[in-house]
Amino acid sequence: MNVKCDVYRFDPDSDAQGRYETYVLDAEPTETILDILRRIYRDFQPELSFRFACGVVKCGECAVMVNNTPCLACERVIEPELKIDPLPGLPLIKDLVIDRRQAFERILKLLPGVSTMLQIRDRWESVDPDATDRYVQLTRCFECLMCQSACPVFADMPEKFVGPLGILWLAQMSLDPKTDAAVWQYAESALDSCTRCGICAGVCPCSEKILDLALDTLEKG
Ligand code: FES
Prior knowledge:
Strand order of the largest sheet: 2-1-5-3-4
Bound molecules: FE2/S2 (inorganic) cluster
Largest sheet: 5 strands, mixed
CATH superfamily of the largest domain: Alpha-helical ferredoxin
């Protein structure tokens, strides 16, 4: 099948603003967006920047917008007409590559004093089976940032609201037996801002309802 693909391009060193480049390819209907991006890179545009790692829906690195919907490029199958953009609302490095580190740091900036608690991933231990089960489920998130990008509250106030990923991190921290009281203060503020619109859960590629579970964990305290 013929695929017409408009790909967002932006190089901060040479472009004042973004633009689209169009590529037409012959493709198999079973190919994914990542397959197409790799072919464009190989056959047409070796300077095109996009990110991926596992290629099998495990790492979340390949998240992009396709026809205005967030998705994992290695999961979503192609259509005859494609418009591929970077995730909106997050710092952009080049073309389709967002700055994941800055996106994470933006959340941590709103949680002063608890960043070292992220090390609970290494030291967490509990005798509570329900907490253990919740923690295991909450850590299945692979931090693709699609929820963060899709959240309308985060889009309105990225400097004030930690967003769905921040809520997930707080829920993980809240289950740490050695958690700090500050986590609950941050959680209260985050829960106040969250409108429970469910958009984040709707775009989450994880099979478990991780974001609902995070809210539930914090709401139950
Ligand atoms: S490349 Fe890892 S999830 Fe797509």
